[in-house]
Amino acid sequence: MSSNTLTDPTKRSEISKYKEDLITDCLDGRPSFESESRYSLSTDGPAIRYIQPPNPEWEFGDPVTSTELGRRWMEGAKHDDDWEHFDAEKEETRKIYSLMISGVQPRPIAFVSSISATGEENIAPFSFFQALSPSPPLIMISAMNAPRIKDTTANIQATKDFTVNLISLPWIVQGNAASIDSPAHVSEWELAGLTKEPSTHVRAPRVKESAFSIECTLFDKYDIVHPDTGANMSSITFGLIKCIHVRKDILNARGVPDPAKLQNVSRLGDISYGLVTEAFRLPRPSWDSDGEMIEQVLKRKQTPDESKEVQQ
Ligand SMILES: Cc1cc2nc3c(=O)[nH]c(=O)nc-3n(C[C@H](O)[C@H](O)[C@H](O)COP(=O)(O)O)c2cc1C
């Protein structure tokens, strides 16, 4: 941590609430990014360590409890009272939201650039985001409409295009800052410290700091209407991909992004973000190649093992 701005208590009154929260919740007692993260060394070597997958001895039909790792995992699911049940109709929306964003994770983050009908340029992150279909090439983002309709939603519906920029580690702080609910006259681009790059197929600029940007036009929209109240709660925007910009230095030999070089940041839940520091590979099973063998293995497993029965 540098000099006295963050550490000197007499200067704390001059620093923002953002910095106060950063100190108490994100810095205090934690090792520094530079000294501990594999990513801080990423220019010298791969940030992601590839290890073998768990349970390489696994055979089709083997249960999770066939390994020590699996047995320990299933310890937490032995009794009926090992579970908490949240009835969505009875819980507060806030509780369901917290459960959803912390349970359905990690989520990729779409950093969306859009322009309003009157020409204001806007950026904001959205983690209710997914790639949907390669042909037609589609992505979706979902924006909540309460307590206000997001500028991103209004802009895309008005001007019909936008860009989605994937956030890499070196600019996650700027990307996070752009989620601020700033008034219309404040430029989120300037506030976040990010750079506009003209798009080639749409009017909304892309983010120069992003190594993977997608230009989209509005393909369709879907309003999520609450079944009980009839209120329009969220808007799903479906984006038709017009062009994908990928930085050459993050490509692997197959010409697609190498996760170790792309350094995508995901959203975990609450204010936690995630990095991939370990990965493993698993082959895709194919019934054509292995179906016959799988059926034999399953049949063998169903046949009572006589020697075991005698021992019991
Ligand atoms: C990492 C991250 C992910 C977010 N994901 C969503 C999301 O999926 N949907 C949503 O409505 N708001 C999301 N938000 C909040 C919006 O970014 C925030 O409301 C922002 O002010 C919207 O900006 P806009 O009004 O300029 O569109 C997210 C915020 C962060 C920091």
Automatic annotation (TrEMBL):
<keyword id="KW-0285">Flavoprotein</keyword>
<comment type="similarity">
    <text>Belongs to the flavoredoxin family.</text>
</comment>
<dbReference type="InterPro" id="IPR002563">
    <property type="entry name" value="Flavin_Rdtase-like_dom"/>
</dbReference>
<dbReference type="GO" id="GO:0010181">
    <property type="term" value="F:FMN binding"/>
</dbReference>
<feature type="domain" description="Flavin reductase like">
    <location>
        <begin position="102"/>
        <end position="258"/>
    </location>
</feature>
<keyword id="KW-0288">FMN</keyword>
<protein>
    <recommendedName>
        <fullName>Flavin reductase like domain-containing protein</fullName>
    </recommendedName>
</protein>
<dbReference type="Pfam" id="PF01613">
    <property type="entry name" value="Flavin_Reduct"/>
</dbReference>
<dbReference type="InterPro" id="IPR012349">
    <property type="entry name" value="Split_barrel_FMN-bd"/>
</dbReference>
